[in-house]
């Protein structure tokens, strides 16, 4: 869906960004590919979180999940699964879980930021802080439950799902988004080098995790998983930097590093996944 | 260890509790059994959360985990595993995860309660609210990572671990502890019936989950898992009611229901697990 595709990746991009994306061309085919994936994820999320009793819990959970800022990390999860030869539907629960993790982190980050300057990307919730606190705590276990429940009755997929759970936990945890939030919390606003670290830990880890999870579930080899994990890290870094409008002089260099990781897959259909380095593709068209 | 065994289960018990536990006898053998299990869990937690870099994250995580109020739910996880014929060490990660879940919930509940009346059981942290928020968010994924990583290289145990992850997620989520916290947040202080619901959702779900997880990992049948899950619910309910000093007239009745679930295991060694209904066994001796 357009709403989820044209998300908050590049709001109010500085003009310097455009010049750094010298290879940008309108890629309608790829845009359509990502829109279709995002639509599937949106539908899956809506089905997974029905509004049921107790309404006081499910309604805000449903609302926060669907109104939280989006990234392309969940879609990258599906795309990575397909690059290694899997079918996208094998990674749909993991993709939804990636979005849920991001939602939980965002919901709680809003609380940290309450007494600090709100960034432009922060939506304003109508829920009080206690509800936001509880909702973050609800969404996280729900993401794990969704994933763990995706095991088929034969249990043949169990080991892969556990690997995905480890990837997600590490992306969320002390070496990942929590570390990014901690750095962010320390009001490191004006120091570009530190904001770069925040982008790496936040969007970088999230995209990296999304790509690795998709590759695991698609049956990728360890080497394929490793390369897609690194590709995700670079793409997330680019998207994070563009989101914050910092370090834009480095985008070209990071883009080259990202594309280098994809050389390994040159015989596969990588047109769509390659397009993800061009974050301008995902800017709001509204 | 005594510190973890003699936890906050029955602080300042009203005298009516003692009279309701008419079958209480000093059970040194059982006390020693639980102390030994709790010591193993404490050691495992200490080893699992080393104090390493970044210290700003690991130190509070380590401290909060080890200083949070304890319950007997993790020990029940080990005991349930043994009742169905498993070895306690098969359930040690799950037991640690149960404690970590409880710690995460407690850490965030402290934030909810900041502008409300603090119950006697709440410890006072020296960390600011943002750190407590981040720590809760760190501890939860860490619990899942610990569990998922406990899969052996053959992957034979994967399906069981995924079942445990579902149990834990449900105990934490919208039908479990979150629902309990939501009810608690609504300041339902004086209504015994509602506090009973809180006990059921908080301690009840936690103990129930602990028992079910242990039974799953020990290789219990569906029926055994079901019975131990219900036993855990009743024991948790008793411990929760005694902790809050409410509904004590119902303890005897609930205790009978709990013991009924154990009839099924009459040919197994259930002396120790049976002793858990006598919450006075676990009162502080300090």
From TrEMBL, chains A, B:
Pfam families: polyprenyl_synt. GO terms for biological process: isoprenoid biosynthetic process. SUPFAM superfamilies: Terpenoid synthases. GO terms for molecular function: metal ion binding; prenyltransferase activity. It comes from the Eukaryota. InterPro entries: Isoprenoid_synthase_dom_sf, Polyprenyl_synt. Keywords: Magnesium, Metal-binding, Transferase. Its cofactor is Mg(2+). Belongs to the FPP/GGPP synthase family. This is Uncharacterized protein. It comes from Kingdonia uniflora.
């Amino acid at each position: 869906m357009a709403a989820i595709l044209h998300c908050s990746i590049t709001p109010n991009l500085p003009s310097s960004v455009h010049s750094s994306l010298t290879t940008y061309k309108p890629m309608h085919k790829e845009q359509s590919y990502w829109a279709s994936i995002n639509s599937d994820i949106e539908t899956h999320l809506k089905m997974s979180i029905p509004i049921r009793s107790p309404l006081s819990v499910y309604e805000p959970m449903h609302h926060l999940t669907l109104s939280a800022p989006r990234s392309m990390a969940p879609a990258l999860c599906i795309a990575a699964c397909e690059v290694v030869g899997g079918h996208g539907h094998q990674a749909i629960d993991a993709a939804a879980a990636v979005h849920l993790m991001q939602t939980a982190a965002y919901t709680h980050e809003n609380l940290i930021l309450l007494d600090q300057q709100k960034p432009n990307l922060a939506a304003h919730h109508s829920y009080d802080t206690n509800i936001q606190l509880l909702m973050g705590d609800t969404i996280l276990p729900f993401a794990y439950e969704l994933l763990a429940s995706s095991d088929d009755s034969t249990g043949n997929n169990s080991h892969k799902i556990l690997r995905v759970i480890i990837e997600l936990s590490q992306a969320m945890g002390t070496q990942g988004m929590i570390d990014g939030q901690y750095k962010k919390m320390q009001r490191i606003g004006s120091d570009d080098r530190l904001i770069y670290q925040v982008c790496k830990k936040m969007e970088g880890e999230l995209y990296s995790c999304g790509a690795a999870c998709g590759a695991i579930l698609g049956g990728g080899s360890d080497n394929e998983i490793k390369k897609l994990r690194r590709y995700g890290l670079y793409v997330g870094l680019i998207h994070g930097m563009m989101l914050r409008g910092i370090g834009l002089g480095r985008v070209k260099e990071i883009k080259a590093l990202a594309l280098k990781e994809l050389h390994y897959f040159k015989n596969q259909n990588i047109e769509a996944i390659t397009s993800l380095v061009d974050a301008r593709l995902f800017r709001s068209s509204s």
